Amino acid sequence: MLKRNLDPKSFFYAGGLVEYPLSPKVALQGELLYTQIGGKMSKEAVPIPDSRVINFENTRYNLRFSQIQVPVSIKYSIIPQFSASVGMNIAFNLSSKVKTTFLGTDLYDYEGIKTLNLYPFLGAEYKFNKKFFVDAQYNFNFTKINTANGLPVKAGFLQTV
Hints:
Number of helices: 0
Mean pLDDT: 78
Distance between the termini: 41 Å
Structural class: mainly beta
Shape: elongated
Helix content: under 10%
Strand content: over 45%
Largest sheet: 8 strands, antiparallel
Order of helices and strands: EEEEEEEE
Low-confidence stretches: none
């Protein structure tokens, strides 16, 4: 029997955004971001009674994906300082670094990473004044970011500005 442990990481974001008002309460927001996402994952072997497996080591993965992300959202202002948003984050993988450790051997590279990934998201924003705000979005992990038949990799992450 295998148990999976996941420790997701969101490293940093750099970029900008524009907002176009559609009405007094609704706006269209677009962003252009560079980021790295990933994390550490392990598959642990759990002994099964009367099993003939004598020695089976854990497999560890260290994943890091560099991406250009283009989140596009519709924002609704609940009150002038607070708004909620829903949208789609279109992410382009620029590079992937994957280190796999199995039976004491380190292997690098991971085949079958998709170039384009789509993350639907929900968000909220609070404006302190016209120049300063806090924005948080949760990007859901409904789809795999790899095309290989091996270990399925999904990325869901919290993004804050």
